[in-house]
Structure formats: structure tokens, C-alpha cells
Amino acid sequence: MNYVEATETSLRKTGQIKLHGPQAFAGMRKAGALVARCLDELATIVRPGIFTSQIDDFVRKFAFDHKAYPATLMYRGYRYSTCTSINHVVCHGMPGDRPLKEGDIVNVDVTMIVDGWYGDSSRMYAVGEISRRAERLIDVTYEAMMRGIAAVKPGATTGDIGHAIQSFVEPQQMSVVRDFCGHGLGRMFHDEPNIIHIGRPGEGVELKPGMFFTIEPMINLGKPHVKVLSDGWTAVTRDRSLSAQFEHSVGVTHDGVEIFTLSPGKLDKPPYKV
Length: 274
What we know:
Its cofactor is Co(2+); Zn(2+); Mn(2+); Fe(2+). This protein has helices at residues 22-42, 52-65, 132-150, 158-169; strands at 3-5, 17-19, 69-70, 83-86, 89-91, 105-114, 117-126, 175-176, 182-184, 191-195, 212-215, 218-220, 226-228, 235-237, 243-245, 248-252, 257-259.
């Protein structure tokens, strides 16, 4: 894998990893902060009885009110401003007229374009009182993401990230989804490198200062296998087991990692006290 210094015109995928400078870090902080604020505010409206289409309406209005654009809206034909993935939906759940009910868990994935920079993050939300196994799944998934992020530093590899996640999750009798991964981003929604959430230490792509990417493990209570439904987007667990996901956008610094999408209200994982 080759590396290249990112420029203002780095708006296409070339197979190279872009290395960004201080101005780019500032742009990503602004984009990430807005997404994190949106996810914080969702903690006040996700409740039994709300339609996932109402969540989507909220995200779209929030973006436009803050002079941003929801990156998923009309992306490759996708018609919504967010993804809402409920219970056994692994990712890319499409909002609609399905009301959330007591005991559901839902991942809301938000990406916004702010001054040309992409902020991308997702969180789990508990709908009313949820089961203990759902709580545990959410806790393990969040911890897995944070362990993956803690592995990020110059000279480490993408395999180190995957190993940190996999070696924590599997002893919990849970599984890591293989079919979807994290990705590079910046002035593009999806770029190099792919961040696989399983791996071996020292393998994969070397991390260098200036790299931007997401870490977004999807963890299942059952087996890791998924299938995509006929709508072409919605991915579900094949065994109908519960699935959870958290996602942060991060940048590799000279001495470690910066998380661009931290919650300003300390609402990083349920239960959310708002």
C-alpha cells in the first residue's frame, strides 16, 4: 500500500492512503463535533413509539440547520439521511414507519459533510427497559471499539486494531462480523484503508501520522454470518441473533490517536442520562 500527501484536490479514490496535515485535522474536528452533537440530541428522542422515519427527519433537519449535508442522502441511490438498525439488523437499516418498541436496541449511524469534510459516527440506543443480554452486548461492543482505538499509534498496523477487538469479543461468547469494515475518510466518504475488525498483531497496513479512518465493529450475540435483504441495503444476522455497533472517526497523530466524534455531553454509550 502506497501513501500520498493529501491535497485540496484529493477527492477521488486512487488506492493510495492519504496523509493529512493540521488544516485537515481542524476540518475533521469540526465535522466530527457536529455529528457527535446530533447523536447526543437523539438520546432525548429515541423512545418507545417513535418511528425510525422520525429519527431520519430529525437528522436531516439538524444537518441542514447547521449548514451541513447528510452524506448518506442519495448516496448510491440511498434515500435517507441516516441508517437505523434495530435488534438483529447489523447495519444499513432503512428508516421507515416501524415504531420502536420497549426492549428494542437500535444503532443510529450519522455521517455529515461539513465544509467538505466527512464526520462519521454511530451509537447504540436502548428503547426503554432492555434485556440484560442486550445490555451486555452493547457494553462489549463499545469496549471492543475503544480497545481498537487504543491500539492506534504510528508504527502499529491495521492487524493490531483487529486483534484488539477480536481477542476481547470472542472470549465473551460473541462474534465479530467479517462482512463489513471500517474505512478511510476525509474529503471522501469511503477511502483507503479498510479497517478489518479481526486480525493478527503486526499484519496489515502500517499506521502513519495523518491517516483518517473509522473504527466501527459490529458484534453479534450469535454467529458472525450476515445476509443482505432484497432492498439491497439492510444487512441482518443469519441466525436472527441481536447485533450491535459503535463507530468513531479517528486520526493518527504523531504520538497516538485523536477521536473526532467524541460526545460533548459524555453520552458515549447507554444508559444515557439526559
